[in-house]
TrEMBL record:
Superkingdom of origin organism: Eukaryota
Comp. bias intervals (Acidic residues): 814-824
Record-given protein name: Uncharacterized protein
Annotated spans, Disordered: 803-853
């Protein structure tokens, strides 16, 4: 062995077998067999012609051995078999103190030179008992005209011995043997009979504590882990501690003692959360299970991308979250998909969690760890949570499969945690059966057992006479729960805290599978709902090409992109997707209704936004873990003898050697491809709900609003407004990511799905109470509630908003009002910024026909900086109390306040309240305010005069771009050109109308001509254009 065994590491990480390595070694370093035969023939020809043979011995005096004793033994040897190499080892033939490599060759030649007939030995190696077989040996390859030989690699046999030594010395760790299983197989003996033999196989587990220590060492070496000593925390000032707590915590600390705040900060920054994943796959015709564990990225424990750039300015920018959340192989072994087989790995997992209770100390710093989430496909989630496999209750939330299409039922379902599931088994005889080894105590119950289980849970069974009715009642009660969660199965009487899984949650959604399956179902079903034959053929062709291509690109949202606006956007878009699916698809044709609106559709629409509230989708995406099975399968197929007893050890060893620190991450390239494709999509506007949803689907829409109550309680015109015909939510990319009025983004560190749902329910009840007292406007005509078991409809203030937004007084009916509006516009012009013009008034009823040009990168950077500034203001302003709402106006002036401009903060404050649109100029009026007032502007009058045209659309487009990107020369120039064209068109229209009215043309329409002429004249006067 050498100190640098890089060739050993390269062999194990390459995925090549020892035989393949040896073949490549001989091919690289040695000549071919044909070349060796030609060299041997040439040598024999030269020797026959009198060339002196080459000797490999030299002088016998250089060697140290007992010559006389050797000669005596050879002369007296009666055997015809002689092993010269063993004789050299026996007599210790050394050269310069080292054993000679060609000792056998030396002794044979020495015996021959001392008149001993060596041909009497080994006659089986000679042809016809006379001539020896000539051994053709492949020589090393040479370069530079044969002067230099290519360096030779170590043999596979040597590398194998080194690997064996490193395994014995624990340099290479393949874990502990766990979960022994006996496999039976049939073999044929020498007589041709079939015999059944059994083989005992084991799984392997790398202790969780060892994985954590290696990960902490890796993350410390990479510089992304925040590791500070106790002395550092004690040296912090109270202001520094408060700033750090404000930065990483979603709620303001109520502690006044500096020591308590320091302890709180130490606890947050030293507590790391873990994510678990497991799945089954087929490897060499057997089913194997793989468990993987990874750290969860939290900016309280790790640097952000920007902090990494500031800390290491000379290093290449990296994706810190991708570095932190690298999965590690935890358990690997042969196991079927049945619960009885998977349960065999549970005891060793609970042992690791118990050992992890006291934490880990690294470089003198104590770290604590919490198992936080489980993310996997449907069957894996069901096993981990104790849910039945498939059936009518496939989702962990307990909604019946036939109700997955009932969105209102799904939205109102309260999530349950593992403690709720454990509590189900604390009553009745189920706990006794579990301790007796029955892991599914509710299966195959008799009628008496069903009656007892129901009565123990307070269900009256007097009217349930048949077993079928009892079973139905039991199924409705359990909602698919079949056994305790996996980690609580062996000790269900222990609480989650006692089992060290108090924060553990099994997520009801896994975006990797759910999104891909929903998209696939949509693509397959959509062609069957198109009537036009050509369009249907195109869709079917697209379906075949898309489904046939197995290469999929899936985007995921990183932790830095999870903002309140993004959360609201996901809620609205998934709700719209569900409503449109039911409206357009309705009853599926290609597949069954249960498949189309099945668990994947349900998880995506209902659970994904709820999960996104507390954690970003990139952290729970199981794409990297799913890929590992491909590596495990390739290693098992290409580097093992394919016997069950040898697969696990070899595969774990080679897989861990492949997990090097500098391996290439495919996420960066994949994200680049997705980013390029996203540029081809149209601009994502605000989410709009039509007015009909208030009446036809008011109950469904209310259930959606109940889930986003924290976005409604800040008030009207903050996250939503009514434009007269539609309800508009401010969630487009142009909107600010954060708003001073809230809400804030929750963190999985301090909350859970169940807690968040309880908080949102409380906020909704507060919103309903405020709406009933006219202190708040909800986007509903009436709210449906229950009081004392009775259904009650409470009116809201939305009608007043709708009436004001659609009031006819907001439109121009005569020329006097037109003049007033022109005067108002002139007054606004004097108060506007120098970069704005009076002609740039917003027109809400003219659509933007052409797509806006691509915004330069500098503008995207500008928006990023503004969002960051808003985020800092938001953190320092709104987090005084998480769900506190600023005082609103009284009942009398509540309607007037809806359309008034938001009050400014005190003069001594540097912060400005955020409106529904990000303002670039201090005097700019936001679109919702103008849309609510419905005032006619100069461009409204241009459209009334000329009609909708591309010139008007271009003017609108470049006006908005000029306002969003001040100083952009191309946008300013394009606006000036389009505005000049409009002035020319209005001038031409004026002179045409002047000629018609002067010549008495169009007498039957003279009043309209005069009205148009008056509008053109006022526009030209307003612009200062000469028209006499």
């Amino acid at each position: 062995m050498t100190e640098n065994d890089g060739d050993v590491q390269n062999l194990l990480a390459s995925g090549k077998s020892f035989l393949q390595y040896e073949r490549e070694r001989l091919q690289t370093c040695y000549v071919t067999t044909d070349q060796a035969e030609r060299q041997a023939d040439d040598l024999q020809t030269k020797l026959a012609s009198g060339k002196k043979p080459k000797t490999h011995i030299g002088k016998y005096t250089n060697y140290n051995f007992n010559r006389q004793e050797f000669l005596e033994e050879v002369k007296n040897c009666k055997s015809t078999i002689m092993n010269w190499t063993r004789m050299a080892i026996k007599y210790n033939v050394t050269l310069n103190g080292k054993l000679a490599g060609n000792g056998g060759q030396i002794l044979k030649q020495f015996a021959q030179d001392n008149d001993i007939d060596v041909n009497q030995f080994n006659p089986h190696l000679r042809i016809s008992g006379r001539d020896h077989l000539q051994r053709i040996r492949r020589s090393k390859k040479r370069v530079f005209r044969g002067k230099l030989a290519i360096p030779n690699k170590r043999t596979a046999k040597k590398l194998k011995s080194i690997i064996q030594h490193k395994l014995e010395s624990k340099i290479y760790d393949i874990g502990l043997k766990i979960a022994p299983k006996e496999i039976r197989k049939n073999t044929i003996d020498s007589s041709g009979n079939i015999q059944e033999t059994s083989i005992q196989v084991y799984g392997r587990k790398i202790p969780l504590k060892d994985i954590i220590l290696k990960e902490i060492q890796r993350l410390t070496k990479s510089g992304v882990l925040i590791s500070k000593s106790d002395e550092h925390y004690k040296s912090l000032s109270k202001e520094a501690v408060n700033n750090r707590l404000k930065q990483i915590s979603s709620t303001k600390s109520t502690e006044t003692d500096n020591t308590t705040e320091i302890n709180q900060l130490m606890t947050m920054e030293r507590q790391i959360h873990l994510k678990l994943w497991h799945d089954h796959s087929d490897i060499l015709n057997h089913t194997y299970i793989s468990f993987m564990v990874s750290f969860l990225y939290d900016h309280a424990n790790f640097l952000t991308n920007e902090e990494f750039k500031e800390t290491y300015p000379k290093k290449k920018p990296v994706d810190v979250q991708a570095i932190v959340e690298r999965p590690n192989l935890y358990i690997f072994g042969q196991s079927g998909s049945k619960d009885t087989e998977q349960v065999s790995y549970t005891p060793t997992r609970t042992e690791d969690l118990e050992e992890l209770r006291n934490g880990v100390i690294f470089d003198g710093i104590p770290y604590t760890f919490q198992l936080r989430f489980f993310s996997g496909d449907g069957p894996a989630r069901q096993f981990e949570a104790g849910q039945q496999r498939g059936g009518n209750y496939s989702c962990l939330c307990g909604v019946h499969s036939k109700n997955h299409i009932n969105l209102e039922c799904c939205f109102k379902r309260t999530p349950s945690d593992l403690e709720d599931r454990r509590a189900v088994f604390l009553k009745g005889e189920s706990l006794v059966k579990i301790k007796q080894g029955n892991i599914n105590p509710f299966q195959n119950l008799s009628k008496d057992e069903l009656t007892e289980e129901l009565e123990c849970r307070g269900i009256d069974t007097f009217r349930l006479k048949t077993k079928a009715s009892l079973q139905e009642e039991m199924s409705d009660l359990l909602h698919g729960i079949s056994r305790p969660p996996a980690l609580l199965l062996h000790y269900p009487e222990k609480s989650l805290t006692e089992s060290n899984v108090s924060c553990y949650e099994v997520l009801p959604c896994e975006p990797l599978h759910d999104i891909s399956n929903v998209v696939q179902n949509i693509i397959q079903e959509l062609p069957h709902h198109v009537k036009l034959k050509s369009t249907k053929l195109d869709l079917e062709k697209f379906c075949n090409n898309t489904i046939g291509d197995k290469t999929k690109l899936r985007d995921r949202t990183s932790v830095e992109r999870r903002t309140p606006r993004q959360i609201l956007r996901l809620y609205n878009q998934t709700f719209l997707f569900a409503v449109l699916s039911k409206s357009i698809i309705g009853i599926p044709v290609k597949m069954t209704q249960r498949k189309f609106y099945g668990s994947h559709f349900h998880s995506l629409v209902v659970h994904l936004p709820e999960i996104y509230r507390i954690i970003n989708t990139k952290s729970i995406l199981a794409e990297q873990e799913e890929r590992t099975f491909g590596s495990l399968r390739r290693l098992a197929e290409g580097t093992t003898n394919r016997k069950p007893g040898w697969i696990v050890d070899n595969t774990i060893l080679r897989f861990n050697c492949q997990q090097t620190d500098n391996r290439i991450c495919s996420f960066s390239k994949q994200n680049s491809v997705i980013s390029q494709q996203s540029k081809l999509l149209s601009k994502r506007e605000n989410t709009i709900f039509p007015k009909e949803i208030f009446g036809i689907k008011s109950s469904l829409f209310q259930s959606h609003l109940e889930r986003i109550a924290d976005y409604l309680i800040p008030g009207y015109n903050i996250w939503w407004h009514y434009n007269g015909t539609e309800l508009v939510f401010h969630d487009s990319v142009d909107e600010p990511e954060f708003r001073m009025q809230g809400p804030d983004t929750a963190n999985f560190r301090s909350t859970s799905l169940k807690k968040e749902r309880a908080i949102i329910d409380d906020i909704w009840q507060t919103s309903v109470d405020k709406a009933a007292s006219s202190e708040l406007v909800l986007p509903l005509l009436h709210v449906k509630t229950r009081e004392d078991g009775k259904l009650i409809y409470k009116r809201t203030n939305l009608k007043s908003v709708m009436k004001h937004a659609t009031s006819p007084t907001n439109s121009i009916s005569d020329q006097d009002e037109t003049n007033d509006n022109l005067e108002e516009t002139t007054e606004k012009e004097t108060n506007q910024d120098d970069n704005s013009e009076s002609t740039e008034d917003y027109i809400s009823n003219i659509p933007n026909v052409q797509e806006p040009p691509e915004v330069p990168a500098i503008d995207q950077e500008r928006k990023h900086l503004e969002d960051k500034e808003n985020k800092e203001k938001y953190k320092s302003y709104i987090k005084v109390s998480r769900w506190t709402v600023q005082p609103t106006c009284s009942k009398i002036d509540v309607h007037e306040s809806l359309f008034s401009k938001p009050n400014k903060l005190p003069a001594n404050s540097a912060m400005k309240p955020l409106t529904c649109k990000r303002k670039l100029f201090a005097s700019e009026v936001s679109k919702p305010e103008i849309a609510s007032c419905r005032k006619k502007t100069t461009l409204d009058m241009v459209v009334q005069l000329l009609g909708p045209s591309s010139d008007v659309d271009n003017c609108l487009k470049y006006r908005e771009l000029k306002q969003k990107h001040p100083g952009h020369k191309s946008f300013i120039s394009a606006f000036d050109q389009s505005f000049s064209k409009l002035q020319i068109e209005v001038s031409k229209r004026y002179f045409a109308l002047k000629d018609k009215t002067a010549k008495d043309e169009g007498k039957e329409n003279r009043e309209n001509l005069l009205a148009d002429k008056e509008i053109a004249q006022k526009l030209l006067d307003h612009w200062g254009v000469y028209y006499f």
